[in-house]
Design brief:
The protein is α/β, with parallel strands linked by helices. It folds into two domains: about 260 residues, 3-Layer(aba) Sandwich (Aspartate Aminotransferase, domain 2), CATH 3.40.640.10; about 120 residues, Aspartate Aminotransferase, domain 1 (Alpha-Beta Complex), CATH 3.90.1150.170. The protein is about 40% helix and about 10% strand. The chain is built from 15 helices and eleven strands.
């Protein structure tokens, strides 16, 4: 049994042991992170994981090396590896080591970042990071923001700001508008805020999977004639399905004319503004009333890290500021309390990882990483265009390429779908790489997302060689019954599902 430290603290660890355990932990992590033989995904059944990990907690403390060894044997192998150069599935999540060390500092110091009184340094650090983000997207000096745990929380915070700023209390006549490619967190956020399903309009998108401003205007007109009040439009800058970017400038003009809040979910594509072509694709982002960004995507930060920016800094406090008696000591003058800007009172210092990694690498390195991803995505598109056996199913955009293999010998489209689903499974089983799938224009589609800063041209070529040449007779059997349910057809960051009332007249619903 481990004894208490010299001060009698039953949970204390003496300084030399702290250092030794830290070194051993880092050694284990570095070895794992640098081991390229670990595949991008290793699955396990619930029974296998129960067999490995079930049991009561120990009454007495265990040896730290044994704890590390068990994690390395029974926990860490059974997960996806977003930093694998062959990871092209969903949205890759490849962090940086300096960012991880920033998280370690925040966790080891157990920073409470809810109030200026208790966290002046970390709070100012977050304000500085948010100021960088504001500058990058072209927001004015009076804009503000907050770091949250991810894009879903940022979208919820944005819609709450829209309602509190424009109308106050929830009302049955309020209406919001999203596209059939919007992220599902927007529908979930509307539900949490009290919107009934009929108060959220899911609009069909055009042939490039973007909101059509004319259809949006017609929907608003119909709602106004029916006595309803349009409250918000949630556009997307980089949809999860296809990477599509809604026409932000026309949408912002329409919303400004109607007095409607424009929120842009740029969780996936927002940090492409660091590059020249990204800024061109995202033109008009600076006109939105609020913008969601996810630094854990194209800014390569560890989970959990999302951001909400608003054009008017005051709307966050209007929506969220509350001062109970037990927090009266925390309120003084012009100090910034981050708990006044969102849902959380107790929250960590999320800016540390962002600040540390940007200080270490510099902005130019992140710009180069995004540009490299876009170059490699173009390489994928060129390989699809050059191969008779492959065909694009949607325009490639912001690092997302949707395509399928034709399989000329297949008896019908369902069989083609099944062969493509089997390709996804076979690739995973090969250990070479990982792709995910989606539904485009009603058909099963391979979806490649190039975001990983460890990925190179050789990794792209190996992936495309496999997908183009693997023989149908050697493909693995699909993992589940039902063609469109196979091999991860539902994205982890998935769009709002279509219903019979939301289907597109021209196909392509999410």
């Amino acid at each position: 049994m481990r004894e208490a430290d010299g001060n009698g603290d039953p949970l204390g660890v003496d300084p030399e042991a702290m250092r030794a355990y830290g070194y051993r932990t880092v050694d284990m992590l570095v070895q794992r992170l640098c081991d390229r033989s670990i595949p991008p995904l290793r699955r396990a059944s619930p029974q296998e994981m129960r067999d490995r990990l079930s049991g009561p907690p120990p009454a007495a403390g265990q040896d730290f090396d044994a704890i590390l060894a068990r994690l390395d044997r029974d926990v860490l192998p059974f997960m996806s590896r977003g930093d694998h150069p062959g990871f092209f599935a969903f949205i890759p999540f490849c962090g940086t080591w300096p960012g991880a060390l920033g998280d370690f500092i925040a966790s080891a110091c157990n920073i409470y970042a809810g109030s200026w009184m208790e966290s002046a340094g970390p709070t100012q650090l977050e304000l500085e990071v948010l100021a960088w983000f504001k500058q990058w997207i072209g927001y004015p000096a009076g804009a503000g923001g907050v770091l949250v745990d991810g894009g879903s929380a940022a979208n919820l915070t944005a819609l709450a700001c829209a309602r509190e700023t424009l109308v106050g209390d929830m009302s049955a006549d309020l209406v919001g508008y999203v596209s059939d490619q919007a992220h599902s967190s927007l529908a979930r956020s509307a539900r949490v805020l009290g919107f009934r399903p009929e108060q959220l309009r899911v609009l069909p998108t055009d042939a490039r999977f973007r909101i059509d401003p004319r259809i949006l205007a017609a929907a608003m007109d119909a709602d106004v004639r029916a006595g309803r009040r349009p409250l918000f439009v949630a556009a997307t800058a980089g949809t999860t399905n296809t990477g599509a970017v809604d026409p932000l400038t026309p949408l912002s003009q329409l919303c400004r004319e109607r007095g409607v809040w424009l929120h842009v979910d740029a969780a996936y594509g927002g940090f492409a503004v660091l590059t020249e072509r990204g800024r061109e694709l995202l033109r008009g982002l600076d006109a939105a009333d609020s913008v969601t960004l996810d630094p854990h995507k194209w800014l390569y930060q560890p989970y959990e890290c999302g951001a909400l920016l608003v054009r008017d800094d005051s709307v966050l406090r209007t929506a969220f500021q509350m001062t109970p008696d037990y927090l009266q000591d925390c309120c003084a003058g012009d100090e910034t309390n981050l708990s006044d800007r969102g849902l959380q009172l107790t929250r960590s210092a999320r800016a540390l990882k962002v600040w540390v990694s940007l200080q270490y690498f510099g902005v130019d390195a992140f710009t180069a990483a995004v540009d490299r991803s876009l170059d490699l995505a173009e390489r994928v598109r060129e390989r699809v265009d050059a191969a008779d056996a492959l065909e694009l199913t949607a325009p490639a955009s912001l690092g997302v390429i949707c395509f399928r293999r034709r399989f000329p010998g297949a008896a019908n489209e369902d069989e083609v779908d099944a062969h493509n689903a089997a390709l996804v499974v076979a690739l995973e089983q090969s250990g070479l790489g990982l792709v995910s799938s989606t539904i485009v224009n009603g058909r099963y589609t391979l979806r490649v997302c190039v975001l990983n800063h460890t990925t190179g041209a050789d990794d792209v070529d190996r992936l495309m060689d496999f997908l183009q040449s693997a023989e149908p007779t050697t493909l693995a059997a699909p993992a589940a019954a039902g063609t469109v349910a196979l091999a991860g057809a539902c994205q982890r960051d998935h769009p709002i599902p279509a219903t019979p009332l939301r289907r597109r007249s021209n196909g392509g619903g999410g």
